[in-house]
Amino acid sequence: MFDGFETRRATVQGAELNLRVGGVGPPVLLLHGFPQTHLAWHRVAPVLAERFTVVVPDLPGYGASRGLPATPEAYAKRNLAAIMAGLMAELGFDRFALAGHDRGGRIGYRLALDSPGTVTRFAPVDILPTVEVWDAMDWQAALGGYHWLLLAQPAPLPETLVGADGPGYVRHLIDRWAGHRDRLDPAAVEAYARAFADPDVVAAACADYRAGATLDVECDRADRAAGRRIDCPVLLVWARRYLRERRRRHLDVWRGWAEDVREVPLDCGHFVAEEAAEECAAALLTFFSGD
User: Fold this and answer.
1) Separation of CA 246 from chain center
2) H or E segment at 75?
3) In the sheet where 53-57 sits, what is the strand order?
């Protein structure tokens, strides 16, 4: 995986980040989601690297990245977005394109909102803004997305429950969310599961979701009330087998947050960059190229 990419370590605002960097050209930042690591992009990143300089970190607290205290304040997407912007600045990139899946997408839209002009093009992958998810939550959505409520519970309940078998919990989520389980590389799945054997990773994930139920919602509500919008083109790449249509079309939701929004729905489950790697890579390559 990641042939031709360089493995690096970088410390940014207290976060000790593990990352891969490869390719030549305009910069692109790829952010993974829960419960994965940067390996989620292992089939997409090499395609993009043919035309771009691609930066692929483990998010703070996930994979091999460490350094932050396991608090909602540290894992608020506003703070994580500032860390990602700092990482790119340290690499010499003040402006860059960004694709973020799941939690990485939430960091991405927060970065675009908080630092206008920094993100040139933004691709949220299989997500809606956090406040939109909470506002639409009913009992059916809560059953489907129960981890949002479980992991946000006060410590040490979710840490104890998930930590009893972190790798098993990760495999449970992958089986639950994947539309084409056989398309996920077994080595990547093993890496995701192995990471959650570390209590520090479990604690970071819980802090991430606690932030999502508190500080992140507050930021979203404030921006929505103030009419703040993402100032760059947005491409929503979403999975028909996971982010299903309910109440409002996903495109309409994102058009409430940005002026220029388009979409690419794909026939796969939640792990878009692995289950529909060729289609996802092609969509991002076209979008980031300005086409």
Assistant:
1) 22
2) helix 72-75
3) 6-12, 15-22, 53-57, 27-31, 96-101, 119-125, 234-239, 261-266
For 238, the 3-state DSSP assignment is strand
Q: How far apart are CA 68 and CA 148, in angstroms?
A: 21
Torsion angle of C-alpha atoms 231, 46, 201, 9, degrees rounded to 10: -90
Structure-block tokens of residue 218: 């507050």
Beta carbons within 8 Å of 28's beta carbon, 6+ residues apart: 48, 52, 53, 54, 55, 96, 97, 98, 99, 288
Q: Within 10 Å of residue 184's Cβ, how many Cβ atoms?
A: 18
Question: Residue 244: pLDDT band by 50, 70, 90 thresholds?
Answer: low
270 tagged catalytic:
yes
**pLDDT tens digits for range 258-274:** 999 999 999 999 999 99
* Residue-wise pLDDT tens digits, 180-194: 999 999 999 999 999
The answer to whether the CB of 53 falls within 8 A of the CB of 25 is yes
**Residue 291: its pLDDT value, please?**
65
The Cα-based distances of 35 to 49, 168, 277, 285 in angstroms read 24, 12, 18, 25
Catalytic-role residue among 58, 102, 208, 216: 102
Taking the model in full, what pTM does it have?
A: 0.97
Spatial separation of the C-alpha atoms in residues 209 and 4, rounded to whole Å: 34
For the record, the structure tokens of 182 come out as 């056989």
Rounded distance, CA 130 to CA 44, Å?
Answer: 25
Angle subtended at Cα 233 by Cα 228 and Cα 238, rounded to the nearest 5 degrees = 100
Give, in degrees to the nearest 5, the angle at Cα 213 between 33 and 30.
Answer: 20
Active site residue 200: no
Given a contact cutoff of 8 angstroms between Cβ atoms, the answer to whether 128 and 251 are in contact is no
Closest among 96, 9, 89 to 48, alpha carbons compared: 96
